[in-house]
Amino acid sequence: MRTIALFLVQLAGVLNGDDMRIKPLIAFYLIAGFVFVAFSGRAEGMGAPRYLIAPFALLAIGHLAFLVFQAVRVSSRAGLLSGAALLLHVIAPAIFLLCLFIGLQIDRFSERYSMRIGDTLVKQVAAYEEANGYCPASLEQVLGEGQQLPSPILRASSFRLDGCTVWFESTLFTTCRRSTGSNEWLCSD
User: Fold this and answer.
1) Which domain, by its residues, includes 184?
2) Do 26 and 98 belong to one domain?
3) In this structure, how many other beta carbons lie within 10 angstroms of the beta carbon of residue 16?
4) What is the pTM assigned to this prediction?
5) Other CB atoms closer than 10 Å to residue 50's CB: what's the count?
6) What is the pLDDT of residues 82-126, one digit of tens each?
7) Which of 64, 90, 107 is the last residue of a domain?
8) Residues 6+ apart with CB under 8 A from 121
9) Which residues, 6+ apart, have CB-to-CB distance to 154 below 8 Å?
10) Where does a domain end: 107, 141, 162?
11) Which parts of the chain span the membrane according to its record (predicted)?
C-alpha cells in the first residue's frame, strides 16, 4: 500500500511538471490527436491539417516500441519516478493513436452515410433516364417540386452529376462515384 501511495505521489510530481523533459512531447501527442479528430469527417484537399499529423503515427509506434524496451529495463530496477514518467510516455502516444483510429472511423461512417444519401439521388437519376431516354443536365432536374438537393454528411462536400453518374468529394483526395448502371459506389483518387 505504501508503495502504491509513493508511486501516486511520484506520478503527481511528474504531472505537475517536476520532470520538464516530457511535457512538450506529451502535449504534442495530445494536441495532434485531438486536432486529427476535430478535422475528421470532411472532404479534404492539399491544405488539410490531418495530412501533416498522420505521418506522426509512425513516430508514435516507434516511440511505443522503444518504451516497451524501456519498461523491461526499468522493471529490473526500483526507480519509481522512471516508472511514472514511463507511464506518461506510454499514455500520450497511445491516446494519439486512438485519436487517429477514431478519426478514421468518423471518416468511414461519414462516407458510408453519404453514399446512402447518394443512393436516393442515383435512383432518381435512373428514373429520369428511363422516363426521358437521356441523362439529366443537373441534379436539380431530378428533384421534385420544392425539394432541395441533399448534401453529403462529409463537410465541405456536395453531390454532383456527370452524365448519369452521381459523385461527391470524399476524404483523402478521393471522389466517390456511382452510375445508374452500377450497384456499388467506387471511390478513387
Assistant:
1) 109-188
2) yes
3) 8
4) 0.73
5) 21
6) 566 667 777 888 888 998 899 889 989 999 999 999 999 999 999
7) 107
8) 139, 142, 150, 159, 166
9) 41, 42, 43, 110, 111, 114, 168, 169, 170, 171
10) 107
11) 26-44, 51-72, 84-106
- Cell 510530481 belongs to which residue? 13
Q: How far apart are CA 180 and CA 97, in angstroms?
A: 39
Judge if 122 and 66 occupy the same domain: no
| Spatial distance between the Cα atoms of 9 and 22, rounded to a whole number of angstroms | 17
Q: CB under 8 Å to 62, separation ≥6 — which residues?
A: none
d(CA 61, CA 36): 17
- For residue 172, the 8-state DSSP code is T
Asked whether residue 15 falls in the same domain as residue 62, the answer is: yes
Instruction: Tell whether 154 and 115 lie within a shared domain.
Output: yes
